[in-house]
Design brief:
2 copies of one chain form a homodimer. Chain A is α+β, with helices and mostly antiparallel strands and 252 residues long. Chain A folds into 2 domains: 3-178, Nucleoside Triphosphate Pyrophosphohydrolase; 187-247, Arc Repressor Mutant, subunit A, CATH 1.10.10.10. Helix content of chain A is 21%, strand content 35%. Chain A has helices at residues 49-61, 162-181, 195-206, 212-219; strands at residues 3-14, 26-32, 40-41, 67-74, 86-93, 107-114, 121-127, 132-144, 147-155, 223-230, 238-243. The mean pLDDT of chain A is 90. At the A-B interface, helix 1, strand 4, strand 8 and strand 9 of A face strand 4 and strand 9 of B. The structure holds a DNA duplex (27 and 27 nucleotides).
Chain lengths: 252, 252
DNA sequence: GCAAAAGTGTTCGGGCTACACCCATGG
DNA sequence: CCATGGGTGTAGCCCGAACACTTTTGC
């Protein structure tokens, strides 16, 4: 049986400012290889699988600063045109500023998800500036006493494979879960950041606007104020904060 | 590379009554094969991996009523004495009353977790009536800005393999998460049940006593009252309830 | 009557939401 | 001076925790 590992790599990048004076807006991004597939790695027989994954990320981006966790193992032969039969996916969060090098074939695509009213179908547009990849995903929910089962289907044809679309979908769901229960949000940012930057990470992952005053209070125990002050916009400068290492939550 | 699938199968059984008049107490149980290992299945190249897992459970227990979800894929060669190099684990919840048949080599072990005060070490005792398997698990937590990493280690020697111990540990953690966010609790019970039975499922999974009055209110939207009344104990009979199919939550 | 379990109601506090309001900045 | 972002305070609401209390049953 042939096994492959692959990565769903998320990052958050600043878009162009709408107005010189205003804040930069962040976008959630994902890395695709040039053939619209996810970056892969080989699972060596002699190496701890997570170590293989970590080593590959270090090799690809020449940094050891990133978040990584196992996402899911896929084994539906229908998804494949290749002869791989099992794919172990790792979810990675990386701050672009830590990337020292990257294969030419990789590009970061902005993720835009539309059709939010219709929860069972999502229109996704991936955009790397040069190329746009569009697709629709249906979510079918089967509920009964024994189970709640989600099945995702790619609707129609797309440049992207069904498995890739489903992995992106599953990855975003995992991010949404993790951002509420862990400190993953900080992995998107520099060591020191403005609260508004952190809020933007929450907003792009949860895909909704948050009230700044309330957000500030909610994340207060997770952060520490530094004595540094930086101007993000043309307006009042903000203090820089860091992650509070003493913060403990019942991480799941 | 050699791949195996295996199962961490949970069930809840009634213990002996302490007093004829009192309620039966439930115990969380797990299935082990006779060599203290977890039941396995073969991952066929031609079959959807989840289907392989489901088919095997159906074959082993002669029922199609069970809950199943993928738990994790393990690949640390240190864990193995055998020549398997990758193990995909599925978590299964089964109500014993639905089991029509079972291999002789399987037994259900009660799970007792002690040393609760010391959160970083757990004493586990598995007991099937005839045999007791004891072991200790250490949880090492590494926290930093990029990650919160849990590493579990089997302390000392045990009749159970380290991977098996870790899978049980991980399975219980998953159950705890799922019981708060999904309807898995109902998979342990008959279609119709008393609220106290449901509460016992929550209690054995969360490993703490709950206040009946509050529990009742909390789960009220998830259940429907039937007109059936049954005596569980020698005292006031309870109404039977069923899962409310209309109940919708943001299942993760 | 009593103990245990089924079931209802009330109070309290913490956390989230909404929102008013202040300060700081530069165009 | 005004738009925008940084930052504080407060009032209302919902939900969970604690607990008092009633009802039902068998011994």
């Amino acid at each position: 049986m042939k096994i492959k590992g692959n990565f769903i790599i998320f990052s958050a990048d600043n878009e162009e400012r709408k107005d010189v004076r205003r804040l930069k807006e962040k976008k959630l991004q994902v890395v695709l290889d040039k053939n619209n597939s996810l970056p892969t790695f080989d699972i060596s027989n002699k190496e701890y699988i997570k170590k293989s994954a970590e080593n590959q990320i270090e090799l690809l981006f020449k940094t050891n600063k990133f978040y990584i966790e196992q996402l899911y193992t896929w084994g539906d032969p229908e998804y494949y045109t290749s002869n791989t039969e099992l794919t172990v996916t790792y979810l990675v969060i990386i701050n672009k500023k830590n990337i020292k090098n990257m294969p030419d074939s990789f590009t970061f695509y902005d993720i835009n998800i539309e059709n939010k009213e219709k929860a069972n179908q999502q229109d996704v547009i991936l955009n790397n500036g040069e190329k746009k990849i569009q697709y629709k995903i249906d979510t079918i929910i089967k509920r009964n006493r024994e189970n709640v089962e989600y099945t995702n289907k790619l609707v129609g044809k797309s440049e992207i494979s069904e498995l890739t679309a489903i992995i992106i979908h599953t990855g975003i769901k995992r991010l949404r879960n993790r951002i509420e229960n862990t400190n993953i949000a900080f992995s998107f940012l520099d060591k020191e950041f403005a609260i508004s930057e952190l809020q933007q990470i929450y907003e792009i992952i949860l895909d909704k606007k948050l009230v700044a005053a309330n957000f500030r209070k909610k994340i207060d125990p997770m952060i520490k104020k530094t004595d540094k002050v930086v101007k993000e916009s043309a307006y009042r400068p903000s203090s820089r904060y860091t992650f509070n290492d003493e913060f403990i939550r019942n991480w799941v």
